[in-house]
Amino acid sequence: MGIFNRRKKVDDEPGVKDRTSSDDTLLDDSAFYKKPTALRLFTVFIYLAALIFLILVEIGNINGNAVIRDTYFLNINLQDIIPTSVPNAVLINTIAQSLGLHDFYQVGLWNYCAGYTGQGITYCSPTQLAYWFDPVEIITSELLVGASIALPTDVVSVLGIVRTASTWMFACFMVGTVLTFLCIFIAPLEFSKKPRWSHKARRIFLRSLPIMLLRFGALLFTAVGAVIATVMFVIFKNTFESAADFNIQATLGVQILAFEWVAVGLNLVGFLMSVGTCCGICCCSGKRKAIKKQEQEHSPRVEEK
User: Fold this and answer.
1) Cα separation of 187 and 46, whole Å?
2) What is the DSSP string of 175-193?
3) Domains of the chain by residue range
4) DSSP letter for each residue of 67-129
5) 35-281 architecture in CATH?
6) Under 8 Å CB-to-CB from 28, ≥6 apart: which residues?
7) Residues with Cβ < 8 Å from 152, sequence gap 6 or more?
8) Residue 10 near residue 227 (C-beta atoms within 8 A)
């Protein structure tokens, strides 16, 4: 590999070997190289913050407690499922509630919750691995015997896609969370306590590459999970609201979407730091700048008269 043999070729040129030797003698690593304590702390901070936001995404909507109950992907409001243009709509809505329907249903990563306007959440389903939201089954199961209600045809037709997408979304968030957790402890090791020029380029590259792949994995899985969640629930929202005859109101959970995309942004920052470190191996070790600075410090100063 040309990168790793570069120094060897340069050192074989006439006169270069002696200059390199003198430079190494002149350069005092401990005096002019600052240990990457700040970089390591910053790396720990961004991955710890990303982990916290991912955990908030994953515990969202699992119960009716504060903050958690407001962290959901989608809220479907059936309170006004009968259009207000129908005579006696208020009475009809009251009858609809008596049939067993809740006023609203909201979806999380593990389950769904339901409740009534003015009372809040009154029920949350048990958590389930790779959970997917099936509004047809949920609403049908809550209706009393003999009652029936129609849902938009487009919602029924996309349930197969929703199930597959939800499985991938769940898996991506889980893997992304685990990799982000590992980055808290492993990513800071990419920054050596000694300057890059004191190590062989091959050694630095072989140490940095696995860590960079780990950072990329954390970014990739977190981003894919966020993209799937955003696209899927935006489609869900538009599908419900496009059926004007049903007057179903659907609202995206801005809070959970913000959490997941902030986590993606933090993982992106961490990955770019890793890319910068790898680029520094072959492009800018910083040795020449350090030598120049030390030469200036050792050069005799002319005293002003």
Assistant:
1) 11
2) HHHHHHHHHHHHGGGGS-S
3) 35-281
4) TGGG--SEEEE-TT-S-TTSTTHHHHHHHHHHTT--SEEEE-SS-EEEEETTTEEEEEPPP-T
5) Up-down Bundle (1.20)
6) 294
7) 239, 240, 242, 243, 246, 248
8) no
CB atoms within 10 A of CB 21: 11
Per the CB < 8 A criterion, the answer to whether 124 and 112 are in contact is yes
Could you give the angle at the alpha carbon of 51 between the alpha carbons of 47 and 52, nearest 5°?
A: 120
99 three-class SS: coil
pTM for this one?
A: 0.78
Neighbours of 248 (CB within 10 A): 21
Q: How far is CA 105 from CA 60, 108, 112, in A?
A: 14, 10, 7
Which amino acid is residue 12, in one-letter code? Answer: D
**Residue 106: which of 255, 214, 226, 228 has the closest Cα?**
255
CA dist., res. 215 & res. 221, Å (int): 10
Question: How far, in Å, CA of 112 to CA of 233, rounded?
Answer: 14
Residues 174 and 30 sit within 8 Å (Cβ to Cβ) = no
Q: How confident is the prediction along the chain (305 residues), in pLDDT tens digits per residue?
A: 444 454 444 455 554 444 444 444 444 454 444 566 788 899 999 999 999 999 999 999 999 898 899 999 999 998 877 655 666 666 666 556 767 788 899 999 999 999 998 889 999 999 999 999 998 888 888 876 566 666 777 777 888 889 999 999 999 999 999 999 999 999 888 876 665 555 566 666 677 889 999 999 999 999 999 999 999 999 989 988 887 677 788 999 999 999 999 999 999 999 998 888 777 665 555 555 555 555 555 555 544 44
Query: Strands 249-252 and 120-124, how do they pair?
Result: unpaired
